[in-house]
Amino acid sequence: MRFLLIILALISFTLLNQTYTPAHEMEKIEFEMRDYDEIVLPTGSFIPVITTQEISTETCPEGYKLKFISTSDLFMYETNIIPRNTEFFGYIEKINEPVIGTNASMKIKITKLLLPDGFEIPMKGYIYTSNDNLIGGELTPPADWVKMPHYQSKFQGISWNHRSATLQIRPGGRRSMGTHTRIPAGDQQIIILTAPAPITHTLTD
Fold this sequence. Notes:
By secondary structure, this protein is mainly beta. It has a domain at 39-136 and 178-199: Type IV secretion system, VirB10/TraB/TrbI (Lipocalin), CATH 2.40.128. The chain contains 2 helices and 17 strands. The chain has a 6-stranded antiparallel β-barrel with strand order 2-4-7-8-9-16. A two-stranded antiparallel ribbon has the order 1-17. Strand 8 and strand 9 (120-127) form a beta hairpin. The protein starts with a helix and ends in a 6-residue tail after the last strand.
């Protein structure tokens, strides 16, 4: 009986050692977690992507949801933080209809990315253009052209004692009606970040 009690005591002692973590060890683990530095993609970073569908101011309303796919790996500190084929999601934030003198335009906002393993990360960005990220909005051609005579110098083209003239065509004061702006599927675009994007998850080989 005494031998059995000794065996039970040894088993209990072993189990307690396996499940119990001293307080100073717990503090060490928590400190290491607090000391972890996530990778932050700064504001103004560019991410090359392609469109997965046609986007048009004529057929897509404001709020229309869109998806883009990255075309190359994006590295930071020797870490592939955004692998190729990462998906980016957004929507058409604003549409300006075509008017006389100006083509239609739109702004496309990006709200999150989806890594190939299914992990989502929120982000803030736009499809980039040099015109404050406004896609389209170009001036339209003149609606008419005016013919105006241009008299040559008196030392040129003198015929029968008269100064000759040529007709020049100049744009009139009116411009034509604007057209809708369209981005084809598979078109290359660039996302620009408008706020820092903390990358809290990366893929490993």
